[in-house]
Write a structure and sequence with these properties.
47% of the residues lie in helices and 15% in strands. The chain is built from twelve helices and eleven strands. The chain has helices spanning 9-15, 21-27, 39-68, 93-100, 116-119, 146-164, 218-233, 236-241, 247-267, 274-286, 299-320, 325-328; strands spanning 76-79, 82-86, 106-111, 128-131, 134-135, 166-171, 176-180, 182-185, 188-192, 198-200, 204-208. A hairpin with a 3-residue loop joins strand 10 and strand 11 (204-208). The protein is globular and about 55 Å long.
């Protein structure tokens, strides 16, 4: 992790697929039933639009990383690159539908560039009528919290792709699209509101909506996401469970995640040097001084390790034409 992230069950559950937009909507409190042209709706619309931009950016970067590194990951799965949203996960579904320009509650939030969903021509904000040959209404149960339908939809997608390699999506336009899954590293990505840190739990990478990297170049944000993905593909969250997260063990995993960053970036089509560029930009302000987390080295030490690893990546890629970290990366934790 780039900075320690508190793991609160309620936050994780609320963020699981709805990207924690729910927390902002509920903070607005009791509001009128129509969509007014007032400051409250305008504030919501601005935040909603900005969150969707960040969701799409993270989805695109994440897809490049898990697709480009799939041949080297030990754990892989079929994904479509489709991310859904449910207006019912908000306290004001009408505001969400109005902001998204859609009549249905369940709609396409983002489509990762180059993914099967993108190749099938599915656009954002398109409302869904059916999913995996079932009406959307079948996925919502009485007494559900809003985000629970999204979890069922995600599980249905995973099951359909794992069992048959494809997923049918019925759009409100009347078209039914068959999505073929593509094998990628087994990690999902989400943006979590009201957080400025990044973390990984073995299955997901979570990026706070206030994370400073959103103001950096895409390649540098990709480096931060690659650091978190490194934790997942190297099995760090699982390995730390048995050690009760001793400081020295956490520091070893952080060093290893730093070193794997340029490998993952290279395979995703980014310059591996972006790993050092990110650390130089982010480190002095966010990872230094007397109050830095002692589970992490100083940012300047981290830059040195990353730059040394970049030379290894460049040498391997020059001689083999690949950045096969499964063979050439020297792991030290597992």
């Amino acid at each position: 992790m780039l900075r320690p992230v508190g793991t609160l069950l309620a936050v994780v559950l609320a963020a699981l697929l709805a990207n924690s937009s729910t927390s902002f909507a509920h903070s607005l409190g009791a509001l009128p039933t129509s969509v007014p042209a007032d400051a409250r709706y305008e504030e919501f619309n601005r935040d909603f639009t900005e969150l969707q931009r960040k969701d799409a950016l993270v989805a695109n970067i994440g897809w490049k990383l898990i697709r480009g590194n799939a041949r080297y990951c030990r754990e892989t799965e079929l994904q479509s690159g489709l991310l859904l949203q449910d207006a019912a996960a908000y306290s004001r579904p009408d505001w969400v539908r109005h902001a998204a320009g859609t009549e249905g509650d369940v709609f396409v939030q983002s489509v990762a560039a180059g993914s099967p969903a993108a190749m099938a021509g599915i656009g954002t904000w398109r409302a869904l009528l059916t999913f995996h040959d079932q009406p959307i209404r079948n996925f919502k149960h009485a007494g559900d919290v809003g985000w629970e339908r999204l979890i069922r939809l995600e599980e249905a997608a995973s099951d359909a792709l794992a069992e048959g390699g494809s997923l049918s999506v019925g759009l409100a336009s009347g078209n039914t699209v068959l999505l073929r899954g593509e094998r990628v590293c087994a990690t999902r990505f989400e943006v979590v509101t009201k957080r400025d840190s990044a973390g990984a739990d073995g299955e997901r990478v979570r990026i706070g909506s206030d994370f400073p990297g959103f103001s950096y170049a895409e390649s540098e944000l990709a480096a931060a996401i690659a650091h978190e993905l490194a934790h997942n593909v190297l099995g760090h969250p699982q390995s730390l469970k048995g050690t009760k997260r001793k400081r020295r063990d956490v520091r070893r995993t952080e060093r290893e995640a730093d070193r794997l960053m340029p490998w993952l970036l290279y395979n995703a089509g980014y310059e591996p040097t972006a790993a050092a560029d990110f650390m130089k930009r982010w480190g002095p302000k966010h990872s230094g001084g007397l109050f830095r987390a002692r589970t992490h080295d100083g940012w300047d030490e981290r830059v040195e390790m990353v730059e040394a690893e970049i030379k290894v990546v460049q040498a391997v890629s020059a001689s083999t034409g690949t950045a096969d970290w499964a063979q050439y990366f020297k792991a030290q934790v597992n």
